[in-house]
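Colleagues,

Please find the record for the two-part complex below.
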Amino acid sequence: NAGVTQTPKFQVLKTGQSMTLQCAQDMNHNSMYWYRQDPGMGLRLIYYSASEGTTDKGEVPNGYNVSRLNKREFSLRLESAAPSQTSVYFCASNPRGQGGNIQYFGAGTRLSVL
Amino acid sequence: TQLLEQSPQFLSIQEGENLTVYCNSSSVFSSLQWYRQEPGEGPVLLVTVVTGGEVKKLKRLTFQFGDARKDSSLHITAAQPGDTGLYLCAGAGSGGYNKLIFGAGTRLAVHP
């Protein structure tokens, strides 16, 4: 029972390089989310997808793009990485687009931008 | 902008002690969730509270939602080393689609 799977688990980039973080869920959930977690700042929402075919900006979208490839997959792309994007990135999913429901998280991608 | 403030930020205690973690806001939330996160893992839901004044118990953990639905607390009785981790509160924001507003977290260390 995989739940939410994120790849890669670790990545080191040089400033200006691009990369895509992958996320897939096998729970048939409608909504998916990308967060970043920085020390002392909790989890901040980057982008979310309420349902297949839709994406919307969260609290900190600058420097990122997303693609909801299908119901299972939601990817996060950094076009030109900057040191300020060094963080731990979490993908999450939620079964319905209703407030108050559980979010299921992946194990995270630890990204360092040098 | 809805914000959630957690306190304390760090807590280091001995096994068997009691502790309380607080989560406060000036905004009203439709529900509030508590997650626990272990090193190298994503957060895992502990509980959701929905009704003002609601109290929920999960073994030695007691969660309370404030009457005005602006604050919450987590009380652990007789803490054990297995309780060590990062505790996050999260409020269901006004934007719908289960967009959660997270507190910065309380990092708890319980020493044998």
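The interface with chain B takes residues 4, 31, 33, 35, 40-45, 48, 50, 58, 90, 92, 94, 96-103, 105-108 of chain A (CB under 8 Å).

Comments are welcome before we finalize the supplementary table.
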